[in-house]
Design goal:
alpha/beta; 10 strands; six-stranded mixed sheet
Length: 242
């Protein structure tokens, strides 16, 4: 058995006061083995993004424990979390979050350079080549399609070779052709590089690319599907939304 790359133990996240607050997460237990891809699904307001943010150390839990790459980050100080975000984990978001005034290669190198980590031009070019954009290194975001911009964002996330990639609706702004390419890249990261992915998505076809789909409702994990298919995921999601 692989040890978990991400583990939540009895995690709760309350917004507001204990008397009148809203529980976005309520006693969640989740273990994502290393080298696997887990998708999180559920109705709007079910706690998907909160789970992702708590697992990545972007949000503090109210109670419970969060372990990331074997390290308990529940009460970790900001400097430890900052180090982990730069070296242990990567992020890919729906909005790409590229800097418009920088070229593709500058965007890829930017997080490491701002952290004081030296990165060679060859490393950056290899990262872009790995996502099929070796010939777009000097292009700025406005000169790239949405799918190409997301692939730059993936190269940026992966250049530090993180143990875990957190993805929040990574294909939400893409057409079907670009979505297929991005999903193939994510799958290669798991199969070939042994990295782990925790992804939030609303799309059953995207979720079906994962190894496991976990379903949330009202801050609780209520269902789980291993070896998912689009039809099975859509059916389970429809039940929760009915």
């Amino acid at each position: 058995m692989n040890s978990p790359a991400v583990e939540l133990r009895q995690v709760s996240r309350l917004y507001g006061s204990r008397a009148n607050g809203v529980a976005a997460l309520d006693g969640v237990n989740l273990a994502c083995p290393a080298g696997t891809w887990t998708a999180i699904m559920g109705p709007s307001g079910s706690g998907k993004s909160t789970l992702l943010h708590c697992a990545a150390g972007l949000d503090k839990v109210t109670s419970g424990r969060v372990l990331l790459a074997g390290q308990d980050i529940t009460a970790a100080p900001d400097n430890v979390l900052t180090h982990m975000r730069r070296r242990v984990i990567g992020f890919v978001f729906q909005s790409f979050n590229l800097i418009g005034s920088l070229t593709a290669e500058q965007n890829v190198a930017f997080p490491l350079k701002t952290a004081g980590v030296r990165v060679s031009k060859d490393e950056v070019r290899q990262a872009l080549a790995g996502v099929g954009l070796g010939d777009r290194a000097r292009h700025k975001p406005r000169e790239l399609s949405g799918g190409q911009q997301q692939r730059v964002a993936i190269a940026r996330a992966m250049i530090s070779r993180p143990a875990v990639l957190f993805a929040d609706e990574p294909t939400g702004a893409l057409d079907s052709g670009s979505t297929k390419i991005v999903l193939e890249l994510l799958r290669a990261m798991v199969r070939q590089a042994g990295q782990s992915i925790l992804m939030v998505t609303h799309d059953p076809a995207v979720a079906a690319s994962a190894d496991t789909v976990v379903f949330l409702a009202d801050g609780h994990i209520v269902d789980r599907v291993d070896r998912p298919t689009t039809h099975l995921v859509a059916e389970r999601l429809a039940r929760l939304e009915s």
